[in-house]
Amino acid sequence: MNLESSSAWKQANAYFKKIKDSKITGFLDEARLKDFTFEFNGIYFDFSKHRIDATLLHYLIEVAKEMQLNSGIDAMFKGEIINKTEQRAVLHTALRQQTTSPVIVKGHNIIPDIKETDERIKTFVNQVINKQWKGYTGKPITDVVNIGIGGSDLGPKMVIHALKDFRTPLKMHFLSNIDPFQLDNLLQQIDLETTLFLVVSKSFSTQETLTNAQNIQQIYIEAFGKEAVAHHFVSVTTQVEKARLFGIPNNNVFPMWDWVGGRYSLWSPAGLAIPLAIGYDNFIALKQGAYAMDQHFKETDLKNNLPVLAALLTLLYNNLYQFETEAYIPYADKLLFLPDFLQQLMMESNGKSVGLDNKKVSWQTGNIIWGNTGTNAQHSFFQLLHQGTKIVPVNFIAERTNKSTNFSGNHKILLANMIAQAEALMTGEYNEIPYKNFEGNRPSTTILFDEISPESLGSLLAYFEHQTFVEAWLWQINAFDQFGVELGKKLAKNVLSDINDTSKSLGHDVSTNALIERIRT
Ligand code: F6P
Fold it and tell me: Are 204 and 252 part of one and the same domain?
């Protein structure tokens, strides 16, 4: 079954043609507000400002039913091999499971492994936070650097920034890019004697991460000798042996498992920076929040299921209205890195054009995810959102309460702007002068936290993960592989060797050859 063969999808298409020009404001009344808004774990979701009525939503839910979404959800939670191209289970949900019910992967219950690793994490982070873990010269750790990229960077960085109100005294740094500008800059900020490095790489083969880690390791060896490495380097990887060969002793290596994808891994030891930054108990609260959303996703009927509704809205805009992009605009500086995180989560997961049947799909898949914080964004790209030829569904995200006692008025200004933008996009404003006219009817979701806490943030992040999974299921693609990143990595190795070996004659196309020549000189 796929979108083309689904009879509910045909009905949805036919009905869509009838209502596609209807005004959102025409749908909006108290009854709709009740049906399209939800409270979950301290978060208010408002889906009422969308170009969909109850009938079209009904058809889209029928599509999900016809495509047996529920069996897909079950298969994921049970640990079936749903990542078929890599022959892997997909079990980020097991990492936050709050019960001891077994989850079996290839005949082995993984829950005790997760609990044991969590205990190791707890002991380790408490040692560091309580100043019992000492650097080589006997001083306690003051700074932690996460060396990693993609899923080994974006999740932890986003969460730690979002939970600034819950921080331990440790100073956190992130080194992701291979641009030496970042490394130089980092080295100016830290004291080698009191810094701990987390080398986070699921594959332990990522060029950027390994090169940066090697550069820093060399600095330690030159300054203090080889023995210093064990005091300052910890690793998280599925490749324990590679980490050992790299010089990180086994005791300093936290395992990762192939059943957790990089972009879904902040709940695993790959998120080790998180408990260091906010304490172990808050890390557990983050997982508890995610678990609550997991339970909701698993057990709630499709009509009231938050990640399912979010995914159906993506289907509506991507595949019926044919809008190509979706914006995520946090009106909360705490969520500054959320759009970056969502870009990897959604675009690396669903940017695929071959379906589960290994054939090219004939429908649109992953749309383009982008965004930045408000109100800044209002003064840069909101012009296009209001009057451009493209329609961009927007996800507004904010926090209702405010911890800054001194400037609570500013927070109200922030929220007033967000609410007004959603209203303006929807209602528009008629003006007989065309360039002053606002057509309106531009859709948005509003997500309002009571407070951004470890638990509520955990729930929202799990919501986005499950939304991504549902979208992939409806598009019949595998959300959990990423073969599209490989070709560039392979060619970069050839190009690097061509840049370094100036005696080699170049065999690329003329444009590429010319660029390499410029770097060589
Ligand atoms: O190149 C893409 C990617 O493989 C991502 O999927 C992953 O999150 C990132 O690189 C980092 O990978 P690793 O954790 O193996 O270093």
Answer: yes
CATH number for position 423:
3.40.50.10490
Residues 112 and 141 in one domain: yes
Residues 6+ apart with CB under 8 A from 68: 1
Q: How far is the CA of 275 from the centre of ligand 1 (A)?
A: 21
Residue-number span of the structural domain to which 500 is assigned: 487-520
The residues, ordered by sequence, that sit 6+ positions from 442 with a Cβ below 8 Å of its Cβ are 385, 386, 391, 392, 393, 394, 425, 426, 428
pTM of the predicted model over 0.85: yes
Are residues 314 and 453 both part of a single domain?
A: yes
Q: Do 128 and 260 fall into the same domain?
A: yes
- pLDDT averaged over every residue in the chain: 97
Model pLDDT, residue 404: 76
**Does the C-beta of 482 come closer than 6 Å to ligand 1?**
yes
Whether 489 is catalytic: yes
- Kindly give the distance from the C-alpha atom of residue 263 to the centroid of ligand 1, in angstroms, as a whole number: 8
Bridge partners (DSSP) listed for residue 330: 397
Nearest CA to ligand 1 atom 6: 262
Q: Are residues 396 and 342 located together in one domain of the fold?
A: yes
**pLDDT at residue number 181:** 98
- Pocket test of ligand 1: the residue of 92, 152, 157, 265 to mutate, having most ligand atoms within 8 Å of its CB, is 152
The single residue of 208, 326, 348, 455 carrying the catalytic annotation is 348
Q: What DSSP string describes 65-103?
A: HHTTHHHHHHHHHHT---BTTTTB---TTGGG--S----
The alpha carbon of 172 and the centre of ligand 1 are apart by a number of angstroms equal to 21
Same domain, 446 and 337: yes
User: What residue's CA is closest to ligand 1, atom 1?
Assistant: 485
Instruction: Count up the domains in the chain and report the number.
Output: 3
Instruction: Express each pLDDT in 452-482 by its tens digit.
Output: 999 999 999 999 999 999 999 999 999 999 9
* pLDDT tens, residue by residue, 410-452: 999 999 999 999 999 999 999 999 999 999 999 999 999 999 9
| Residues 139 and 276 grouped into a single domain | yes
- Given a contact cutoff of 8 angstroms between Cβ atoms, the answer to whether 327 and 134 are in contact is no
Ligand 1: does its nearest atom lie under 6 Å from the Cβ of 478? no
15-50 confidence digits (pLDDT tens)? 999 999 999 999 999 999 999 999 999 999 999 999
Q: Is residue 287 part of a domain?
A: no
